[in-house]
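Structure tokens please, single chain.
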Amino acid sequence: MLTSAVSSIAAGSGDYFVYFGTYTAKVSKGVYAYRFQPSSGQLTAIGPVAEAPNPSFLAISPDQRHLYLVNWKGSDLIKGNTVSAYAVDGRTGKLSFLNKVDSRGEMPTHLAVDSTGSMVMAVNYGSGSVTAFKVLSDGRLSEATSFDQHQGSSVVKERQEGPHAHAVVLSADHRFAFVADLGLDKIFSYRLDSAKAAFTSNDPPFVKAHPGAGPRHLAFHPNGKFLYANNEIDSTVTAFAYDHDRGGLKEVQTLSTLPADFKGQNSTAEIQTDANGKFLYVSNRGHDSIAVFAINPAHGRLTPVEHVSTQGKTPRNFSLDPTGSYLFAANENSSTVVVFRVDANSGRLKPTGQVLEVPSPSCVVFRKAD
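Here you go.
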């Protein structure tokens, strides 16, 4: 439901469905959805659309017909750790279960679909591994077609005792994949074969982050020249220059995601650029804010703009809507999603007053309504 009043909206070509992944240890049942009209900012609750254990991260296929999500242990509804496929009803937003396959690791936490819609890659945080699956003609997933197990540790003993692969992003030309491993302070680079739904280690196979940084999530700049990583453990963000031909990364800049006077505990969570490549956003859990940075498109360096309270606890995830006019911040520990208006010129965020009640939200994705 909404804690601010909104009216019902009719279906229209300008509408979107907003899907929220959640953690299901408390009251959540799985994936929830709203209908969203960017022209007015109005939202209408659809409710739960898929009952699933811990669907903590979601990804939409390029043709918008299918939604993929991770599941992991913590419910009698499922045994083991899996990746699930659903068909999307473009008129109602409802989801229909297609199949689920073994993730080949512990606690799958992130996934991505390649730009051809041919393969899905997922990472297993608990065991520190990467898995690929072929997308079948009806949207279902094959069993694993490619796999890599990370090895090693890093300097923060309680967080980096072993590998913890946390995110995967794929290049727009579906030639390379990058995996952030929080436990190893490395970002791995893989070469892709979308037709075979396979990946192999690139040369060099990874770039190192600063010891104890804990790279978590990744975002490509729209121009394809830069890759950004938010580092969970030391609350920093790193800009990398991206070698399009070789799939290599070279560090350009690292800076804090926090105000200089903040002294409390914090960890970063999500990272995203706007569609025009002018601004970068990173969420802070502890400071409970979104850090806004301006991007220099010539060399990718960042300049801090502001820190905005997410008006809730533990913003695990957020997403800009497809029009770039709104940002939805998912506050996991207050079970709210707060909607902000985005200033296109400055990148600054202003609360709209709309607060969605979503149990333990962990992911926000959009799908155009038919």
